[in-house]
Write a structure and sequence with these properties.
Number of helices: 17
Mean pLDDT: 82
Low-confidence stretches: 8-18, 623-642
Structural class: alpha/beta
Shape: rod-shaped
Largest sheet: 7 strands, mixed
Bound molecules: adenosine-5'-triphosphate
Strand content: 5-15%
Number of strands: 15
Distance between the termini: 26 Å
């Protein structure tokens, strides 16, 4: 059942409602305390009075407001647990499981500037398990959202706009700092305070982030330094490679031309030798022809031809051997040079397998640490691992037993050469034998023919020339063999260079003429190529790994630096915002204080018919000078911040009396003073509504009238809900609600006329 009392606008109450200010529209109570059933209070007047006998549930209405606005103190709602707020049932009606209160505001004037709605409802419900739920316009929200929304409309947390029964002088008994909080709240400074807190929270978070990012940067710095050195080394290696490329190009160009030109030259010489040999042969043939006339002669000349063929055969064989020997000699010289170069290498060489084992062991150990070790130690170990890896790369042998291989090659070549030298010796012998056999055969022929001495002489000359040409031919063959070797060596060198420094090593223009230089210049080039090759090999290795790791690390570093920069910027702007809010707060507070003081003095004078009162800022407070113990339980940080703000003292000056200490005021005087102050605060920054629960209880007739006057004057800026037994106060209301409680213990609401109200109230 819904109890909705239709408000009666009272006529003849002596108060004219020229402008009816409606910001508070409605209060809906269900299951809250004695309001077991849904009850709706409509506030379509500037002043609404709630009347009724003791214990009927009037104060529960004020508490319903507190509750819906997010009050957290059970004490100020006269309960111990949230369960106490829920209708506990009676012999006639079962208990409720949920207490809910909705306050509906008129937002046509956008008292809640952030909400673009004509009406704003704030709802809170509490359940028997203690859970609270909040909703704004029906959407669930957090308490903080409610608080921020209310602060934006000047409805603060300190409840300065809801004055509970017997609490009128709370502002007088409050500690200076608490008083300041109430004043700040009344002045609407909570919004700034919220924003400041928010900014401070963000600043704290930002500074935490700064510390984190700085720690990260410190952590990766040594790794980056190490990688930078590696990259530098790689760059040096690249320089070396460039140098090697340049030397190689020159060397190959010259070497290629040298081999080609020398070969052509040698082959031309060889052709000449062959031509000359052919001439000698043909002349020798003529001699032989002449002696084949008889059968004896034929037999003899057959012996000569046989001897000649034998000589030709062994000579040819020897010439082939000479070319091969030339090639072997060249190869041997090259191999010797290389093995000397390897032996002279200043580095210690360690077999690759041993290094791999060690590397694996280090990896294994570092991996095992991954979870256990603190960040810095782990980073150090990881960087150490990379150091070792690169270090190992440099000292690993290019081949397990490179040196031994070279030495073996020298040995093999020497062996081969020696074998060939033996064969050559044998062939030389055979050539000599063939030559003397031929000489003998010819002599026999000559003797038989009885040719003249002169012819004999000529024959010997021819044989000698032939031997000379043949030896020249052998020399040329050896030379060609050596050139063959050089060509092979060149091909190998080209392959090696391409593997080391890329195909560019071969990009050179072929030379048609050799430079005017000693052959030793090429040897020097070759030596420097060998040296460069070794250095390039050493410097190379895991180049791409290091580079990509370096890039990753520097990218990360740059990212962190940028992050720090951003954080510094946002930290600076947060500081600026905080300081702006601080000065805004200070300024608004100073202005507000001055305005409240002006009003306070005026209301006080009005209430007491003279005298004065004002709020004074405490002397810069030393911690401990304050009697407010509760604050000391807060965090030391916020305390030190709060300590910077002086609290507020109240100075009064009663007319015709010399009493100045608050303690010495009578109950009525205290009520008057606090009413003056509450009204002054409301005047400066009017809240949408003000609830006064029997604030007028201690007033005599004359003061009740003054109180009524002030209520009327306040109602021009704020809506007033006055719970009262005071006839004078009732007479100022536009709407009167009577609250009664029947035998069922349930509070009931009814609209009453002024004349009825006085009766209802009893
Ligand atoms: P007074 O004029 O004496 O100040 P009042 O009209 O302000 O009285 P309230 O204090 O608002 O009266 O109401 C108190 C009544 O509410 C008591 O009768 C009390 O039993 C009742 N009440 C409080 N909490 C509950 C609850 N949880 N369930 C049922 N009734 C409750």
């Amino acid at each position: 059942m819904l109890i909705a009392a239709t408000p009666l606008l009272l006529e003849g109450s002596g108060f004219s409602y020229a402008i009816i200010l409606v910001m508070l529209k409605r209060l809906e109570i269900a299951g809250f305390k004695s309001f077991a059933k849904k009850t709706v209070l409509d506030f379509s007047s500037s002043v609404t009075s709630v009347v009724g006998p003791n214990g009927s549930g009037k104060s529960n209405v004020a508490e319903a407001f507190r509750f819906a606005l997010g009050e957290q103190s059970m004490k100020s709602m006269r309960g111990k647990r949230s369960e106490d707020l829920i209708w506990s049932g009676s012999n006639m009606a079962p208990r409720a499981n949920r207490a809910a209160v909705v306050i509906v505001f008129d937002n046509t004037r956008r008292i809640f500037p952030k909400l673009d709605f004509e009406e704003v409802s704030i709802e809170r419900a509490v359940f028997r398990d203690g859970a609270s739920e909040y909703a704004i316009n029906g959407s669930k929200v957090r308490l903080r959202d409610v608080q921020e929304l209310l602060a934006s409309a000047n409805i603060g947390e300190t409840g300065h706009h809801i004055i509970s029964q017997g609490e009128a002088d709370r502002i007088l008994t409050a500690a200076p700092r608490e008083r300041r909080a109430m004043l700040e709240d009344a002045l609407g400074l909570k919004v700034f305070e919220f924003r400041k807190q928010e900014a401070e929270r963000k600043l704290e978070k930002t500074e935490e982030n700064v510390a984190q990012v700085e720690a990260l940067r410190r952590e990766i710095a040594p790794h980056i330094r190490f990688l930078a050195k590696q990259v530098e080394r790689l760059e040096r290696a690249e320089e070396l490679a460039k140098e090697l490329r340049a030397v190689s190009q020159t060397y190959f160009a010259i070497e290629e031309a040298y081999i080609r030109i020398e070969k052509e030259k040698t082959e031309a010489l060889s052709r000449d030798v062959k031509e000359r040999l052919a001439v000698i042969e043909s002349e020798l043939a003529v001699f032989e022809e002449r002696v084949t006339t008889d059968s004896e002669g034929m037999k003899r000349s057959e012996a000569v031809r046989k001897a000649e063929r034998e000589l030709d055969r062994v000579t040819a064989e020897r010439s082939v051997l000479a070319r091969e020997l030339g090639r072997i000699e060249g190869a041997l010289a090259g191999a010797k040079q290389r093995s000397i170069a390897v032996a002279r290498d200043p580095y210690v060489k360690i077999p690759r397998d041993d290094l791999a084992t060690l590397q694996q062991e280090i990896d294994r150990q570092v991996m095992a640490l991954d979870d256990a070790a603190p960040g810095a130690v782990l980073a150090a170990l990881q960087s150490l691992r990379t150091v070792m890896k690169v270090f190992f790369e440099r000292f690993a042998l290019p081949n397990d037993d490179y040196l031994a291989e070279e030495e073996q090659l020298v040995h093999d070549l020497e062996h081969k050469r020696n074998e060939m030298l033996v064969s050559d010796g044998v062939l030389e012998e055979q050539v000599e034998q063939a030559r003397s056999a031929l000489a003998r055969a010819r002599e026999a022929t000559m003797a038989h023919e009885e040719t003249g001495r002169e012819q004999n002489r000529r024959l010997l000359d021819l044989a000698e020339s032939k031997a000379k040409e043949e030896s020249e031919n052998s020399r040329l063959m050896a030379k060609l063999g050596e050139l063959d070797y050089l060509a092979e060596e060149l091909e190998m060198g080209r392959r090696e260079a391409v593997a080391l420094v890329g195909v560019n090593a071969l990009s050179f223009e072929p030379l048609s003429v050799l430079p005017n230089e000693d052959r030793r210049a090429q040897e020097d080039r070759k030596r420097s190529m060998e040296r460069l090759k070794i250095r390039v090999e050493e410097a190379g290795g895991s180049g791409d790994d290091v580079r990509s790791e370096f890039k990753e690390a520097t990218d990360r570093e740059a990212f962190l630096a940028k992050e720090l920069e951003d954080l510094a910027t946002s930290s600076a702007s947060l500081r600026e915002l905080i300081s702006d809010l601080d000065s805004e707060l200070q300024k608004s507070f100073a202005e507000g204080l001055a305005a409240v003081n002006a009003s306070f003095g005026e209301f006080f004078g009005l209430m007491f018919g003279g005298g004065g009162a004002r709020l004074i800022l405490e002397e810069a407070s030393a911690p401990g000078s304050d009697e407010d113990d509760e604050d000391y339980e807060e965090e030391s940080v916020s305390r030190s911040k709060k300590n910077q703000k002086p609290g507020i003292e109240i100075a009064v000056n009663l007319p015709k009396k010399r009493v100045q200490a608050l303690m010495q005021l009578s109950g009525g005087e205290r009520a008057l003073t606090s009413i003056a102050l509450i009204f002054a605060m409301s005047q400066v920054n009017p809240p949408p509504f003000l609830i006064l629960d029997e604030t007028d209880a201690a007033l005599d007739e004359a003061n009740s009238r003054r109180y009524g006057d002030m209520i009327e004057s306040l109602s021009k800026r704020s809506q007033l809900i006055v719970i009262t037994h005071n006839r004078e106060t009732m007479s100022r209301a536009g709407i009167l609600y009577g609250v009664t409680m029947g035998a069922d213990g349930i509070s009931k609401l009814l609209s009453v006329k002024f004349e009825e109200a006085v009766t209802v109230a009893k």
